[in-house]
Design brief:
heterodimer; A: about 290 residues; mainly alpha; MetI-like fold; 13 helices; globular; B: about 300 residues; MetI-like (chain A); BP-dep_ABC_trans_perm (chain A); membrane (chain A); transport (chain A); transmembrane (chain A)
């Protein structure tokens, strides 16, 4: 496995007279491969436990060969657990749609129109995208409990707003990059602003909108703190909250937890895999800030 | 807009207040409509709460009891309490260790080593390991906390590797374990950034270095790393920001314990508010977080502008 000598000599013929090709390159290659193998083990072990425990009849926190079963996945798909996943889906979809649409409208205006104090406003928005969400919980809890909004939909809107500053920035960069000509042509043809947005700008900024939407979805899907504090009704519990409930309960079904967290993680992982196929570049920062 | 095309025969009464000058950009009605949703939502649900929190930080607001309804402005009382609060200083220290050690240094270094070593790795190994690193980055924080609790439990693989089945790594080395978990979850992003930057290192420079007889270490130190320097700075700052906001991981893994060993500021603020019911003091700790993140953000913006 770690004997890349043959390959090393093959590669060295690109740069003609290399002083000491075989020994220098092969040491480098062996060292690189060893490093990668060690780091690969570091990255693999936690995930390996997750996969093995999810199909293990007697799962514990130990890493061991499983007694194969699918009972864990059946346990994870109990109605209450599915309900929590459903709540997560509702919350994340609302947050994604609201955040992305509002951010797109604002981003278009910031990119194309004259706005007084545009620079300082954009800078303020950039600052907001770096503010940790933790600081919002006390004031939001006070405001929402005063207004009687401690439930799923207001929390979803709040999550949309927390993702919005970064989404505005992301989409604005994409709109900045497309040429003005098409929009101008459409305006000369007497298309209204909304028509231009729908027929010209949206199709051309699809990769940017997709990145922003993914960012919004991942942000809401992974959010733990805001739903825990701001959703008072147990029936509106989201999936991470339920997972936390499993983890901290006294009789722990390790296999069930593992299976449930795999099901819970799958949508986000699939989203990245599918999107990275579609949009090679530009989507990368999509999940930069969880 | 249409009136401007029909010029009146006599000159407009006052030219100075005339709003119809076309050589000056004006705020359009359309932009108001487009900006309105964001212009309402962002101030109402983000800026206003942050300002409200600044005020709450100077009150004796409680989660339950008498002061949950009838709270009042207490001036410098919270600040005076904070300055004499040993837990606060410990929290600052733990935050600094965690954010710098795991975020700025740990994640960036791990991503850098991954990206550089991947260049020379065998294709199958490269695909597998870069895939794993990116997968670790995409996982939701709750899942990351779960797999690391399992890995660091007394019967888990880390204890097994320490060849001491009685060890409880998550209890004995709590800060180290949560730092490793955080770096584990962020290194994929750093790796992507560095892989992209490595593709821009000119090949002929490396070849010239090889021809001049530079060793692989010399080529790394004198050619590759200097080219990567801007990316290293960007990555370190981004990782710092992301680590600073990483409440969920630590809260789920250790809840700030044992004995405040992992009590970073966001966790301390949450516990003060929703476990010890001191919402006012919790808000003040949140204000400290805002100040730090604003400082970090300024450095970010400053570096971004000075490069251009």
């Amino acid at each position: 496995m770690l004997n890349p000598g043959a390959k090393a000599s093959k590669e060295s013929d690109s740069g003609a007279p290399v002083p000491n090709p075989v020994s220098g390159l092969s040491f480098e290659k062996v060292f690189s491969n060893l490093t990668i193998a060690v780091l690969g083990v570091f990255f693999a072990i936690p995930m390996l436990w997750l996969v093995l425990a999810s199909v293990d009849r007697r799962a514990t926190y130990a890493l061991k060969l499983p007694l194969l079963t699918f009972a864990n996945f059946l346990a994870a798909l109990q109605p209450e657990n599915l309900g929590a996943l459903g709540n997560s889906i509702i919350m994340s979809v609302i947050a994604t749609v609201v955040g992305t649409v509002v951010a797109f409208l604002a981003a278009y205006s910031f990119s194309r129109h004259y706005i007084p104090w545009k620079g300082p406003v954009l800078l303020a928005i950039l600052f907001l995208s770096g503010v940790p969400i933790t600081v919002l919980i006390v004031p939001m809890y006070e405001m929402f409990s005063y207004a009687g909004w401690l439930s799923l939909v207001p929390t979803a809107i709040l999550l949309a707003v927390t993702a919005m500053p970064f989404q505005i920035y992301l989409i604005k960069n994409f709109i900045d990059a497309i040429p003005l000509d098409l929009e101008e042509a459409a305006f000369i043809e007497k298309a209204g602003t909304l028509r231009v947005l729908r027929s010209v700008v949206v199709p051309m900024t699809m990769p940017g909108l997709a990145s922003a939407a993914i960012f919004g979805f991942v942000n809401a899907w992974g959010s733990f703190l805001l739903p825990v504090v701001l959703i008072s009704d147990v029936d509106q519990q989201t999936a991470p909250e339920r997972l936390y409930g499993f983890m901290s309960s006294t009789s722990v079904n390790y296999g069930g937890i593992a299976a449930y967290s795999i099901i819970y993680s799958l949508p986000v992982v699939l989203l990245y895999v599918l999107m990275s196929r579609h949009f090679k570049a530009g989507f990368v920062l999509g999940g930069a800030v969880r | 807009m249409t009136e401007a095309t029909v010029m009146p025969l006599k000159p407009a009464p006052s030219r100075r207040s005339g709003p119809r000058r076309l050589d000056r950009p004006r705020l359009k009605l359309a932009s108001l409509f487009l900006l309105a949703p964001a212009g309402i939502l962002l101030p109402a649900l983000f800026i206003l709460p942050v300002c409200y929190a600044i005020y709450l930080g100077f009150t004796n607001l409680q989660l339950v009891g008498l002061h949950s309804v009838h709270y009042r402005f207490t001036g410098w009382a919270n600040i005076a309490f904070m300055l004499s609060d040993a837990s606060f200083y410990q929290s600052l220290w733990v935050t600094a260790l965690f954010v710098v050690g795991s975020g700025a240094v740990g994640s960036t270094l791990l991503g850098l080593v991954l990206a550089i070593a991947l260049q020379q790795a065998m294709p199958a190994l490269r695909m597998a390991v870069s895939g794993l690193a990116i997968l670790a980055w995409t996982l939701p924080p709750t899942t990351i906390a779960l797999v690391w609790i399992a890995s660091a439990s007394p019967s888990g693989p880390i204890a097994a590797m320490m060849a001491d089945m009685k060890a409880d790594p998550l209890y004995d080395h709590a800060l180290l374990i949560v730092s490793a978990a955080n770096a584990w979850s962020l290194a994929g992003l750093a790796m992507i950034m560095f892989s992209a930057a490595l593709r821009n290192v000119p090949k002929d420079m490396i070849e010239a270095g090889t021809l001049e007889g530079a060793s692989s270490v010399q080529r790394m130190m004198r050619i590759t790393l200097p080219f990567l320097k801007p990316t290293i700075v960007t990555s370190a700052l981004l990782m710092t920001l992301l680590t600073f906001g990483n409440f969920t991981l630590i809260y789920l893994m250790t809840a700030g314990g044992p004995d405040n060993a992992t009590n970073i500021l966001p966790v301390y603020s949450y516990l003060e508010g929703f476990k010890f019911f001191n919402l006012g003091y919790s808000a003040l700790l949140g204000n400290i977080i805002v100040i730090f993140s604003a400082l970090l953000g300024s450095v970010f913006v400053f570096l971004g502008q000075s490069r251009r």
